[in-house]
Amino acid sequence: MSTFVQAFRKNIQTYTILIALVLIWVVFAIATQGGYVSPQNISNLFRQMSVTSLMAAGMVLVIVTGGIDLSVGRLAGFVSVVVAFFQANRWNTAFPDQPAVAALLSVLIGLAVGTGWGVMQGYIIAYLRVTAFIVTLGSLFILQGLVLLQTEGKTIPANQPVFSEIGQGYLPDTLGWLLTAAVIGIMFFMLFRGRRNKQKYGFPLPTLTMDIAKTAFYSLLLVVYVAVVNSYTVAPGIPYPVLLLALVAMVMTYVSNNTRFGRYAYAIGGNREAARLSGINIRREIFLIFALMGFLSGIAGIVLASYVGYGTIGAGGGYELDVIASAILGGTSTLGGIGTIPGAMVGGLIMASLSTGLQMLNAPPAATYVIKGVVLVVAVIADMYFKKSKA
Question: What CATH class has 37-172+237-390?
Answer without folding.
Answer: mainly alpha
